[in-house]
Amino acid sequence: MEKEREMEEESLKIRIFPDPVLKMPTAPVTCFDARLAAFVDKMRLTMEMHEGAGLAAPQVGVSQKIALVSFEGSLYVLINPTLLEQEGEQEGEEGCLSFPGIYASVKRPARIRVAAQDVTGQERVHQAEGFLARAFLHEMDHLNGKLFIEYLSNLKRGMIRKKMYKRAMGDDD
Ligand code: NI
Predict the structure, then answer these.
(1) In Å, how far from its chain's centre is CA 63?
(2) pLDDT tens for the 173 residues of the chain, in order
(3) CA of 58 to the centre of ligand 1 (A)
(4) What spacing in Å lies between the alpha carbon of 89 and ligand 1's midpoint?
(5) What fold is seen in the domain 2-90+108-146?
(6) Is 87 an active-site residue?
(7) Of the candidates 171, 164, 167, 132, which has an alpha carbon nearest to the alpha carbon of residue 149?
(8) How far apart, in whole angstroms, are the C-alpha atoms of residue 114 and residue 5?
(9) What is the CA radius of gyration of the chain?
């Protein structure tokens, strides 16, 4: 109980579509200090609390190139990530903590290589395929103000937008 309350106090507020911060450009991280480490830790806590597979800084209102992905017990910290290579194609269902209860099928590359810095500023190259590749790409899109609904048909995207606007107006049906 104590632990739960502690987690709630430490967690960050998730920004829900159509919050404009989700569409804003992000700045590269230049300072790899204790403050960054503390922020990344808060992001991790927030992602875990909401049972997300990933979380990008704009989703907690911070326009910086920081994203996390959690997969099979591993935590991937992607700071200033860049896509080096992509190959193949896959299609699968995606959700997003900024779109509660919304899921849609999205086409993505099947295999990728990504360069990113970790929380200490060390550059690392990650290879990912399948779900992990999908999660990396979804979170990296957030850092460019791109949302998964932008991959959908106009009709489907329109339906989701309408639902989200209604939700924002407090008219949840
Ligand atoms: Ni998302």
Answers:
(1) 12
(2) 566 666 666 789 999 999 999 999 999 999 999 999 999 999 999 999 999 999 999 999 999 999 999 999 999 999 999 999 999 999 999 999 999 999 999 999 999 999 999 999 999 999 999 999 999 999 999 999 999 999 999 999 999 999 999 999 986 55
(3) 10
(4) 20
(5) Peptide Deformylase (3.90.45)
(6) no
(7) 164
(8) 36
(9) 16
Cα 99 to averaged position of ligand 1 atoms, centre (Å): 8
Residue whose tokens read 């609904």: 149
Q: Are 78 and 140 spatial neighbours (Cβ–Cβ below 8 Å)?
A: yes
Taking the centre of ligand 1 as the mean of its atom positions, its distance from the CA of residue 101, in whole angstroms, is: 12
- Domain borders along the chain are 2-90+108-146
b/e per residue 19-54 (b: at least 16 CB within 10 A): eebbeeebeebeeeeeebeebbeebbbbbeeeebbb
d(CA 97, ligand 1 centre) in Å? 6
- State which residues have CB under 5 angstroms from ligand 1, the bound ion: 96
165-13-25 Cα angle (round to 5): 70
Q: Which of 94, 129, 139, 150 is catalytic?
A: 139
